[in-house]
Amino acid sequence: MPSIEQIRLRALVRKAHENSHGSAGARTIADIVSNTKQVSLMRYSATKLMKLLGLVSCQIPKYRYKKAVQEYVEIPNHLARQFAVTEPNQVLAGDVVHSP
Predict the structure, then answer these.
(1) Nearest to 32 by CA among 10, 54, 12
(2) Are 56 and 42 within 8 A, CB to CB?
(3) Rounded Cα gap, residues 35 and 41, in angstroms
(4) Long-range contacts at 39-43 (CB < 8 A, ≥ 24 apart)
(5) Band of residue 61 on the pLDDT scale cut at 50, 70, 90
(6) Cβ–Cβ contacts within 10 Å for residue 28, how many?
(7) In 1-100, where do the E strands start and end?
(8) Residues near 23 by Cβ (< 8 Å), separated by ≥ 6?
(9) Phi then psi for 78, rounded to 5 degrees?
(10) pTM exceeds 0.85, yes or no
């Protein structure tokens, strides 16, 4: 049978996890509980309580830019990215900027 203090700590840990929308881990929960409620909670104790309560930290993954493996076939690459010109008026290149 858990003590009243253990029940209180479990409630504080669950509330901190809910307030963070499930993103807080053991370190963050320990900081939240220790700073806001003036209760000493170490991250190891927070880890044990999170496991006991079945709480898991879920982080939103960052968007990863997908690099192109091959170039577009609709747009031919006549210069092949060789911009070193040996003679004048041999290659003309421009920059297209779209402005509404």
Answers:
(1) 12
(2) no
(3) 9
(4) 39/8, 39/9, 39/12, 41/9, 41/12, 41/13
(5) confident
(6) 16
(7) none
(8) 57, 58, 59, 60
(9) -70, -30
(10) no
